Amino acid sequence: MDRTQALAALSALANETRLDLIRLLVPAGPDGLPAGEIARGLGLSASRLSFHLAAMEGAGLIRSRRASRHVIYAACPGALGALMAYLLRDCCQAHPEVQARCLHPGDGGGD
Amino acid sequence: MDRTQALAALSALANETRLDLIRLLVPAGPDGLPAGEIARGLGLSASRLSFHLAAMEGAGLIRSRRASRHVIYAACPGALGALMAYLLRDCCQAHPEVQARCLHPGDGGGD
DNA sequence: TCAACTACTCATGAACTGTTGAAACAACCC
DNA sequence: GGGTTGTTTCAACAGTTCATGAGTAGTTGA
C-alpha cells in the first residue's frame, strides 16, 4: 500500500457511517451482504448508503458483485490490514510503543 | 479509545500534510521538534503548519509544550497505537486476515 | 523600552463532503 | 408489456476543510 492508497483508505474510514459499514461487513465475511440489508441494518436511505458504499469501494476497502437483482458488498480484510501495516511501518517506522499499544491495548498509561 | 476519539484520529490522519507531520514527529521521540523546525522540514507556511498542528493536537495524536520562545511538538505513540488497536479489535473484531496482513504485510495476495 | 524572533489567530474564498429527494436504471415476475 | 423490487445517479443545498496573507501575542536580549 502506498501513501495515496493509505490516504484514500483513511479518508474513507474517517466517517461514522462508513465505520459502521466496516463493522457490519467484516464479520459477514467474503459472502458479504446485499445493499438493502445493509441499509436496513444501519437505518440509512438507499441513496445515502450508495454514496458511502461507493466511497469505501473507491478506497479499495470493500468490493461488490451483482447477484441477480441484488448487489452484494463484502469487506476486503487484506486492504484493512495493509492500511494498518502502512501506519505501523511506514508512518510510525515500527515504533515499539505504537506497536505494543496496538497489540496489547490494555497495557500502560494513557498517552 | 472510543469511537469519537477514533473518528477524530482518523480524520486527523486523513491528510497528506498531517501524515507527513507524524512521519517527522514519531522518530523525533518524546523530545519532539519546535514548530519552526517542522515548518522548515516540511516546507509549510507558519499559519498552515499551525492549522494542521492544532488538528493533530485536538485529535490527541500529538502534544505541545512551551520552551522559552519555542513551542515543541511531539507525537503521542500511545494514541497512535490505541487507534490501531481500535481499528483491529473494535472495528474488525480481530479478524485473523486483517491482523495477519497488519503484522506481516509482505505475505499473501492482493485483496 | 525597543527590535527581533517565534508562533498563533483571524478573515477570506475555493474546494470538498455529506444529505436529501427525485429520477433513472436493472432484474425479476405476472 | 406492465408492475414491482432493488440499487444507483443526479442536482441542489448546507456545512466543513484547507490555503493564503495580514495582523496579533509572547519571549528574549540590547
The rounded Rg of chain A comes to 16 Å
Trace the largest sheet of chain A across and list its strands. Answer: 1-3-2
Amino-to-carboxy terminus distance of chain A: 28 Å
Q: How many DSSP-defined strands of chain A?
A: 3
The topology string of helices and strands of chain A comes to: HHEHHEEHH
The largest sheet of chain A is: 3 strands, antiparallel
Share in β-strands of chain A = 5-15%
Uncertain regions of chain A: pLDDT < 50 for 5+ in a row? none
Summed over residues and divided by their number, the pLDDT of chain A gives a mean of: 94
- In the residues of chain A, how many domains can be counted? 1
CATH topology of chain A: Arc Repressor Mutant, subunit A
Greatest interface and its participating residue counts: A-B, 46 and 46 residues
CATH architecture designation of chain A: Orthogonal Bundle
- Portion of residues in helices of chain A? 55-70%
CATH C-level category of chain A: Mainly Alpha
Structural class of chain A: alpha+beta
List its salient traits.
homodimer, 111 residues, alpha+beta, Arc Repressor Mutant, subunit A, 3-stranded antiparallel sheet, 3 strands, 61% helix, 13% strand, DNA-binding
Q: What topology emerges from the helices and strands here?
A:
2 copies of one chain form a homodimer.
Chain A: H1 3-13, H2 16-28, E1 33-34, H3 35-42, H4 46-58, E2 62-67, E3 70-75, H5 77-91, H6 96-103
Antiparallel strand pairs in A: 1-3, 2-3
Helix pairs in contact in A: 1-4, 1-5
Chain A binds a DNA duplex (30 and 30 nucleotides) through residues 15, 17, 34-36, 39, 45-55, 66, 68-71.
